[in-house]
Amino acid sequence: LTWLLTSELFPTDIRGRALGISTIVTYLCACLATSTFLTAQAWFGGFVFLVNAALTFLGCVFSYLAIPDTAGKTVGEIDQELASMWWWRRDNYNDV
Questions:
Q1: pLDDT score at 42
Q2: pLDDT at position 72
Q3: CB 6 within 8 A of CB 17
Q4: Hey, which of 39, 42, 73, 82 would disulfide with 77, CB 3.0 to 4.6 Å?
């Protein structure tokens, strides 16, 4: 899902750099998850799987609610649709 989203949602002028950064972040998160799993399982036992399931469920809910359908849309149309969703609005950050 990550590779599909990033290739469609970033504007063309920054797409290369943005894809590079998102790839690095994805691999760092995967490294963190795999390197801490056995330690977390030793400390928390089977509870680790419950936490993993909860995070997966929350990710699915977020994907369903926050990611628009991009089939057949231009980058401008996708940007407009994202701007209309309250959690992606940029007008909240005009003061920064």
A1: 93
A2: 84
A3: no
A4: 73
